[in-house]
Amino acid sequence: MKKQGMVILTTLTMMAVLAACGKEENTAAAEDNGKITVNIGTITNGYPTAYYDDDGKKTGYDVEVMRRVEEVLSDKYVFQWYDAEQDAIYTGLSSGKYDVALTNAYYTEERAQNYELPENPIGASPAGLVVRKEDAQIKTLEDAAAAGFKAAPHLAGDGNAYQYQKYNEEHPDNLLDYSISDDPSCFTAGIQYVAEGRYDCILYPATYYETLVTDENGSLHQFADQLSFNIYLPIDTYAVVAKGKTELAEDISKVLGQLKEDGTLSELAVQFYGFDPFDTNSSIYSK
User: Fold this and answer.
1) 3-state secondary structure of 117
2) What is the pTM of this model?
């Protein structure tokens, strides 16, 4: 009887070990009745995409979109939310601390190589061309290239720099004169460079121009009267998924496609942006 009891105990122990190994092989972070935990790193000062409201609730366009994604995928995943600075989020994405980064990220070749980018974007960020007031007739990169304008540089690997590159690839007969910088301050410095005449133009996201230049409390508001800003194109933004998590990226992409199709993304955009950046016929865009 004693020997039989030992056999039964050993068998049960082996079954428990095998079950545990099988669970870990499926996912190291599975819990809540087998659901897969997805750790999402978000910036906290990225109004209107990710921020805390007056009641202390984490919200914003990207955050609420991903909450809708979680609702659709609730049989498979449970999302956990974490706050961090942007650099720390991408470090965590590479180290395995986070599975998804929400940073209002543009497409870049570097991101496409180092992470998984869902085929469907999470949103669209209106962007436009900044020029001096006397050059207000120059409204697009195409106009700037035709006028022989030199664009202020963006940081190497930045999504705005990619837009310069993409433009030249699509317009080989009307190339834009631009350079790439390794100076992390060039994003904000570019506004001053244009105002001072060191460069002729710079492509800029509308939300940042509004915050930094238009707003009376913006750190670059002193240049507002010298500049003209024309919003004319939407740039896709992405939920960036950790490398190797292709199934998660595909699942997120599928739901994002559904949410765009049924109008949810447009509704949330109007709620948080005050307009629909997906509608290229919107009055916010001028050609």
Assistant:
1) coil
2) 0.79
